Amino acid sequence: MAALLTPEEINTQAAELTGWTVEGKTLKWEHRFVDFLAAMKFVNSLVEPAEQMGHHPDIFISYNRVVITLTTHDAGGLTQKDFDLAKQISQLL
C-alpha cells in the first residue's frame, strides 16, 4: 500500500499542478470541453496512462464537463500515486 503524504508534501506538490485543487483527501480537476465528443475523447485518452500506472480516477461526465477526482482509496487519502497520475492527466490537454 502506498504511504499517505503529509500536509506539507501535499501543499508542495499541489502548488506544482495547474488547474487541480486539494479538497479534503482528494485532488480535483474540472474542465469544460467544446462538446460531448471532445469530453469523451479526452476521457478515453486517459484510460491507458491510468491503467499503466495501476491507479484509476473517479470520473464524472456531464455533456461537455469532465470532473476528475483522485485519491488512493486503500490508503485513505492522497499518496504519490495521485500526484503522478494528475501530472499525466494534465499532459493530455
Helical segment count: 4
Q: Strand-and-helix sequence, N→C?
A: HEEHHEEH
Could you give a short account of the major beta sheet? 4 strands, antiparallel
Low-confidence runs (pLDDT<50, min 5 residues)?
none
Number of domains: 1
Mean pLDDT: 96
Description:
This protein is an alpha+beta fold and 93 residues long. It has a single domain, classed as Transcriptional coactivator/pterin dehydratase (Gyrase A, domain 2, 2-Layer Sandwich), CATH 3.30.1360.20. The protein has four helices and four strands; from the N terminus they run αββααββα. β1 and β2 form a beta hairpin. The protein is globular and about 40 Å long.
Topology:
Elements: H1 7-15, E1 20-23, E2 26-32, H2 36-45, H3 47-53, E3 58-62, E4 65-70, H4 80-90
Antiparallel strand pairs: 1-2, 2-4, 3-4
Quick structural summary:
The protein has 93 residues and is an alpha+beta fold. The protein contains four helices and four strands.
Characteristic terms for this protein:
4 strands, Gyrase A, domain 2, alpha+beta, 93 residues, 24% strand, 4-stranded antiparallel beta sheet
